[in-house]
């Protein structure tokens, strides 16, 4: 699907609504280790260095007055038009001033000829296009909620800034004037047609710091762009929706933490699910569920190396005796929640580090694991004997535990017999039996798995179907609905007639325009969950409703077309404004699977 030209967004220098930009005004930069968010007004407001889950160097996103930021912005009024370079994660912004001046900002988290650099390198290049444009510069490290006191030192010919254990260089070309304080660099430069200024940050933590020549940093912007294009070229999708498909695959690639193969759920923490609400969570960790879904999305794109890296990370976690729902990106246990004393986005607190879900049990991990392995095998790959032994153990655990209550896919505080959790247990045992029949798992427990699979299916049909609602419900004993039920179609569960009725009921009860709420009665405390809307489209395509699925996908992506193609977790259905953490991996992978399902329905 080709993108129309985006409508320019007008910004007045230094003026934001209460100091904040809309979330849809951010683009994401990354290199496989960290992600920076660059605002449409030229301010990088979020960057955790050196890793996705490190403490932030720039945190203006959550602390507009005192947070760290890296600003390159025209002095006076301007408009912007911005986009990613074609099939790349290098971002371009064209600033236009009232007197006709135009300049282009090109931004990249740089990589090298041999892949990711062993240091963090954030590069920003400004080229003059028309007239004369004067820019102001501000590079101010964050104080980490007053937990750190950044300072600057002079080492040789270099200005070095220190933030606790992090060491960084701020490098500029000669045309940038700098008025330095101990905590910040404030400066200016002017570009005219044919002139260029380059500004960069090179940073690391507890390690010696390389000082690259600025011209090498500049050249690595284009090198990084070419590497993104080369990678995207081999993505196995050539259909009508390629532009959208590639953009979401590139967003997922930003969330793949290359040192371990973990998949971060998102690059941010505490962006609220509703302005003024309390649902603010840290998503800079790797969920078993999200890893499984993302592996399937990478396999759909033909990205075998990424899928293998993520699957290996997942299997290593499963070898641990104490299985968790989520982990740190390095494989450790995610920390318990700690609140940070900063205002939060749109002054919606609390700002949190850590996640309470780390100690929950969710039956969904069983289905996620086996569905991921089944998809890996379906692509012609093989399971080794050690992994096979591990999967047998997990299938036995699922068969033993499926009758227990759990916290469900939505990590709710009340444990219940959630319908989607039971379906996930059915899914796990169904896939386990199929893997036995394919010779990928030993035939030691097949009969037992078959019996438990069928018991689960019978239990769901007897206890979780509501004829009054015309739908499978959230859990027995309630008429509340769960939008995640649409995933049952992908999993191959259930009665087709009941599934079709469930989809229609969810549309009626949980739908709001092209968007959907996660479950009944949640609209008072959060926005619509974007993955649910893409799941609905996928389900309709898989059920043969391809024309409806195609129309719904066009409507949905048009409604989301407010930025550069980076999707958040949720959206306010009344205004279309983005809500929740971003880039949100679950949203992008659901987008990919919806496109794949529509294409399959055309075959």
From TrEMBL:
Matching Gene3D superfamilies: 1.50.10.10
One GO MF term: hydrolase activity, hydrolyzing O-glycosyl compounds
Start and end residues of each Trehalase-like N-terminal domain: 22-96
InterPro entries in UniProt: 6-hairpin_glycosidase_sf (IPR008928), 6hp_glycosidase-like_sf (IPR012341), GH15-like (IPR011613), Trehalase-like_N (IPR045582)
One BP term from GO: carbohydrate metabolic process
GH15-like domain span: 245-594
Record's keyword terms, sorted: Hydrolase
Designated name of the protein: Glycoside hydrolase family 15
Keyword Hydrolase: yes
Matches recorded under Pfam families: Glyco_hydro_15, TREH_N
């Amino acid at each position: 699907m080709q993108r129309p030209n985006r409508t320019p967004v007008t910004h007045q220098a230094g003026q934001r609504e209460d100091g904040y930009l809309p979330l849809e005004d951010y683009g994401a930069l990354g290199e496989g280790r960290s992600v920076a968010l660059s605002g449409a007004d030229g301010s990088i407001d979020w960057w955790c260095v050196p890793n996705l889950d490190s403490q932030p160097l720039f945190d203006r996103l959550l602390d507009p007055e005192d947070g760290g930021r890296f600003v390159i912005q025209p002095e006076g009024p301007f408009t912007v038009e911005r986009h990613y370079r074609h099939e790349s994660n290098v971002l371009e912004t064209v600033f236009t001033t009232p007197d006709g001046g135009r300049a282009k900002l090109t931004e990249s988290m740089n990589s090298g000829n041999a892949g990711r650099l062993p240091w963090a390198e954030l590069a920003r290049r400004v080229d003059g296009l028309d007239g004369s444009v004067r820019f102001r510069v501000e590079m101010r490290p964050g104080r980490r909620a007053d937990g750190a006191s950044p300072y600057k030192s002079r080492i040789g010919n270099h200005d070095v800034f220190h933030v606790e254990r992090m060491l960084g260089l701020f490098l500029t070309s000669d045309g940038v004037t700098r008025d330095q304080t101990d905590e910040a660099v404030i400066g200016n430069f002017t570009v005219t047609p044919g002139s260029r200024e380059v500004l960069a940050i090179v940073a690391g933590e507890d390690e010696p710091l390389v000082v690259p020549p600025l011209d090498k940093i500049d050249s690595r912007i284009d090198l990084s762009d070419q590497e993104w294009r080369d990678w995207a070229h081999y993505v196995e999708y050539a259909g009508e929706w390629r532009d959208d498909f590639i953009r979401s695959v590139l967003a997922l690639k930003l969330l793949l933490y290359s040192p371990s193969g973990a998949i971060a759920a998102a690059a941010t923490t505490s962006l609220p699910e509703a302005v003024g609400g309390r649902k603010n969570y840290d998503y800079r960790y790797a969920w078993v569920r999200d890893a499984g879904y993302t592996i399937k999305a990478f396999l759909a794109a033909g990205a075998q190396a990424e899928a293998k890296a993520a699957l290996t990370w997942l299997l290593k976690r499963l070898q641990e005796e104490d299985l968790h729902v989520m982990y740190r990106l390095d494989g450790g246990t995610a920390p318990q929640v700690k609140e940070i004393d900063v205002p939060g986005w749109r002054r919606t607190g609390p700002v949190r580090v850590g996640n309470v879900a780390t100690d929950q049990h969710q039956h969904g991990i069983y289905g996620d694991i086996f569905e991921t392995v089944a998809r890996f095998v379906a692509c012609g790959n093989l399971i080794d004997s050690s992994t096979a032994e591990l999967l047998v153990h997990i299938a036995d655990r699922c068969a033993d535990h499926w009758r227990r209550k759990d916290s469900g896919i939505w990590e709710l505080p009340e444990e219940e017999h959630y319908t989607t959790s039971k379906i996930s247990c059915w899914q796990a045992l169904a896939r386990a039996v199929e893997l036995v029949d394919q010779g990928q798992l030993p035939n030691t427990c097949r009969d037992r798995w078959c019996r438990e699979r069928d018991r689960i299916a019978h239990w769901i049909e007897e206890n979780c179907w509501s004829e009054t609602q015309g739908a499978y419900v959230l859990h027995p004993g309630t008429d509340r609905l769960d939008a995640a039920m649409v995933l049952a179609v992908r999993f191959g569960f259930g009665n087709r007639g009941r599934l079709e009725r469930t989809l229609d009921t969810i549309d009626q009860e949980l739908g709001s325009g092209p968007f959907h709420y996660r479950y009944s009665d949640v609209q008072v405390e959060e926005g619509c969950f974007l993955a649910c809307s893409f799941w609905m489209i996928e389900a309709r395509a898989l059920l043969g409703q391809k024309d409806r699925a195609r129309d719904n996908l066009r409507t949905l992506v048009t409604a989301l077309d407010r930025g550069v193609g980076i999707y958040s977790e949720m959206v306010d259905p009344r205004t279309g404004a983005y809500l929740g953490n971003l880039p949100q991996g679950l949203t992008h992978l659901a987008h990919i699977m919806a496109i794949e399902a529509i294409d399959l329905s055309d075959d």
